[in-house]
Amino acid sequence: MAGKDRDPQPPQEHEHEHEHEHEHEYEHDYTESVHSHEEILEHFWSDEDEAELHYDHLIHNHIEPDKPWPRD
Amino acid sequence: MQGNHPVWDVYDQFRTARLNELYYGRRLLSYERFNFWSEVVVAVTSSSSAIAGFAFWSSEAGNPAWKAMLALAAVVTVMKPLLNLTKRIRSYEELFSGYRLQFHDLKDLRIDISQARDYTEAHKARFKKIIDKQRLLADKSPERMEHKRVKSECQAAVLAEFPSRSFFIPGGRDGR
Phi/psi of residue A13, each to 5°? Predict the structure, then answer.
């Protein structure tokens, strides 16, 4: 463990813990806000045909040519 | 028929990787441009902007233009968080660089096949590895639908860049 190599400094460690807590808090909030934007977009573009295309696109997650590449 | 030779799988994938590289490159550029110009519109119309203080905007010709800019800035300000541009641009960047790497791996393989004048088991194993890596690019597409026009332009560009006759086929044409 990296912590064993250093001198014990309880107050600093406590600060670090506090910082980590903030990081997690920030990450959590950020992810939540991204999700809510996604939900808004999903709602914004909700249409049966488009939803099907969206699903289709998730399966084929890369661009394929419209027809097979010519071989001759 | 030489069109059935297994080496064509490599060349098909090679052209598809190039298609994806071009396609996501173009999409990335469009979103970067949109992001840049939306920032410009918002910055120009902000009250602290020096441009907002131009006397021209109070003139008969300038006033409607200024009002239109303000309206555009308002729409952009509302739409930007909904479009989540930063996240989209990041996804396009990842896809673009991912497919660029794949294209270069396949380009290397294509050269090796041509140099060896054969499609060996070692080449097949390398091809399999490259294809497996593609899974890492899964679920990264920020698109709901493909952009048809961009896709067909990119397809035409790939075909012009790599026509079928430019590939080495073992045992056929200029092959053994």
Answer: -55, -40
